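Sample 3 of the quickstart, ligand guanosine-5'-monophosphate:
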Amino acid sequence: MSEGERKEIAEGLASVARALTSSRRILLTSHKGPDGDSVGAALALVHWGERTGRIVRYVNEDAVPETLSFLPGFALLSRPPEFASFDLGVILDCSAPERVGAAWNLVRGLPRIVVDHHEGIGSAATIARWLDPSAASVTVMVGELLEYMKEPLDRDIAYALYTGLVTDTMSFQQANSDARCHRRAARLLEEGVSPFEVTMNLFENQRHAAVRLCGRAMERSKLRHEVCFSELYRRDFEELGARESDTEGIIRTLRGVAGIRVAVLLRETVDGKVKVTFRSKDDTDVAAVAAEFGGGGHKAAAGCTLECDIEEARKRILARLGVRK
Ligand code: 5GP
Ligand code: MN
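Result:
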């Protein structure tokens, strides 16, 4: 990282801290399809709001995943916002209005700050923007933010932040799990987080339908030119009584295949599109691949949505990944 980039990041942190401390009524949102990181970051800020006498609410187009309901204070996330009088909008874990989705309408009229660790600079911020793609998770950044603001940590905040670390680093297995995030994790464990409890809740608490759906995807998977890919159709969901959220762990299992560069899961969505999820194991930049199809993400974990059938999506994606018939 260049000196200039380092300075910009430090200034981003300071400006975000200023905006938060000078606001009393704060509306948080994050990318649609909220995950452990964006929800963890939001919940930590909700707790901070409770401790400091602020009104902090969270909105998202999609429901917060039930798998996260073990987090202390989880119910605080679903308190309805009083729309009239927020004085700050906070966009977490993305920086573009399109990623926010329908909740954008609720923050668009507010002064807005962005805290994000994805590559790229979306236009969601108006008064402050803190972008650090070198951060393993947004919860790493929120942990640093609270420290910068000299706010004490507690067990509730620590659970929320630790969960974002675990989900965005794939349980500290991805290349992004650097010393900075392990230090942050250690600090959170000191507050009383049980890593066993977090990983049990996140990964060993699946609906049986999800495990069976994963089975379908595994059985149907193919290996071509160091790319392992699979697909799920609406009829799979219907036959197994599975939901969208039951797809979460599948890409992780596909990624387990030896010697592959990239794992890809294609699945039909309820509205007849194809959601594509990527994970890379070498230096293939799947965020760049996803971006070519209107999506994005991180170098090793990304996604996009195509408006065509699975057949066509598979052809286009595999061609882009250099897989020939
Ligand atoms: P996941 O596969 O865990 O849902 O997503 C992996 C990463 O890719 C996350 O950082 C997520 O925000 C990003 N991502 C997934 N789908 C999309 C998409 O359709 N558009 C964009 N811009 N990013 C996506
Ligand atoms: Mn994230």
